[in-house]
Design brief:
Blueprint lengths: L1 H32 L6 E16 L4 E6 L6 E2 L4 E5 L2 H50 L5 H48 L1 E3 L4 E6 L6 E2 L4 E18 H6 L5 E6 L2 E17 L9 H4 L3 E7 L4 H5 L8 E7 L8 H4 L38
Antiparallel strand pairs: 1-8, 1-12, 2-4, 2-7, 3-6, 4-5, 6-8, 8-11, 9-10, 9-12, 10-11
């Protein structure tokens, strides 16, 4: 009986040892599978994006908000319509002023034609009076009267021309006023400046917004990236435009491509000025990873910011991506083929040509 208990005990111990060995063996195998070769660096990060505020340029009341939080929006899409009743009344008044000024132009031109006829008549009468005076058939007084009439007619013509110029200037001023009010009415229609998603809806119909008052906050899906942090030695060797990859935590087997668009010139985690080599090795620098713009056409509907993941960058140009980062790489769908969209939502500007420049002022 005693031997039987000992045998069971050793059996349990052997099984436990086998389980522990299998566990650590699996972890060792998994670690070998995800090990990074020389020249590849990695860091934890999350998908981020710039935020864009849609704000009012004028102190107006919100008439209608056409989108809700979470909606996708396109550049130029109307998002918010402000109340423009007052502006439209001002526009109608300005248009009437322009019409009145144009009528004044027509009247001034007719007056000019009349004044030209009067000048011609006065000229003829003056010339006739001069001839009669020369032939002693007319009086000096008659000649003087005709001469003054001629000068008066010429002065009236100049006055008519001045009135025409004033009326033309009034039309220009009125048209400029109309354009200004029309511009304000146009500004009362708030549109999206980017391809993005509505993050916050900050105003509702009936609310009055001040100048610069925010109505919506958008996530700009044209500039989405992952930020990671690398130690100073790796950051100093990293080049702008270097090839990159990244994954997200909830689906790590899908890999998205990217490139290095920014390397911070300043350390993030330790003081700027350090003395010893061991302290310098603790410096961490912010690195921004972005992916090609063509992903927008295929995966924009799945773009989400705040998702955690891991970013990988080539510190050396000669480095080779491991199989698990290469074979699971997501690419845009070729024509005629269907491919499920990736879990990663990263769609920034297109990749620039690879350069040989080093990051700015990254010191080890």
């Amino acid at each position: 009986m005693t031997m039987s208990k000992k045998s069971r005990r050793w059996t349990i111990i052997a099984l436990a040892a086998a389980v522990v060995a299998a566990f650590f063996g699996y972890r060792y195998w998994k670690g070998k599978q995800t090990a990074l070769p020389e020249g590849i660096a990695a860091g934890n990060g999350r998908i981020e994006s710039k935020q864009v505020d849609v704000a009012s340029k004028l102190p107006l009341k919100v008439k209608e908000v056409l989108v809700a939080e979470g909606d996708m929006v396109k550049p130029g899409q109307v998002l918010v319509q402000m109340d423009t009743v007052t502006l439209e009344s001002q526009l109608a008044e300005a248009n009437q002023s322009v019409a009145a000024a144009r009528e004044q132009i027509a009247a001034a031109r007719a007056n000019i034609v009349r004044r030209q006829s009067e000048i011609e008549l006065a000229r003829i009468e003056t010339e006739r009076a001069r001839k009669l005076l020369a032939e002693h058939a007319g009086s000096q007084r008659e000649y003087d009267v005709r001469t003054m009439n001629f000068k008066t007619s010429r002065a009236g013509y100049a006055e008519a021309q001045a009135q025409l110029q004033v009326a033309e200037q009034q039309v220009k001023v009125g048209e400029a006023n109309v354009a200004t009010i029309q511009s304000r009415i146009t500004d009362a229609t708030l549109t999206s400046p980017v391809l993005g998603r509505v993050l916050y809806r900050l105003a509702e119909p009936g609310e009055v917004l001040a100048v610069g008052g925010k109505a919506l906050t958008l996530v700009d899906l044209g500039d989405v990236y992952m930020e990671i942090f690398l130690p100073s030695q790796q950051a100093a060797a990293l080049k702008l435009g270097a090839e990159a990859r990244f994954t997200v935590d909830y689906e790590p087997d899908r890999v998205a491509p990217g490139y290095v668009s920014f390397v911070s010139p300043e350390a993030q985690f330790t003081p700027k000025e350090v003395e010893t080599k061991s302290e310098r090795e603790k410096l961490m620098f912010r690195v921004k990873i972005q992916v090609p713009r063509e992903f927008i056409l295929h995966y924009v509907e799945r773009v989400k910011t705040g998702v955690r993941g891991v970013g990988y960058v080539k510190v050396k140009d000669s480095a080779v991506w491991p199989d698990w980062l290469q074979k699971n790489l997501i690419t845009p769908n070729p024509p005629g083929r269907q491919q499920p969209p990736p879990p990663v939502s990263a769609i920034p500007p297109s990749r620039p040509p690879s350069t040989a420049t080093s990051p700015t002022s990254v010191q080890e």
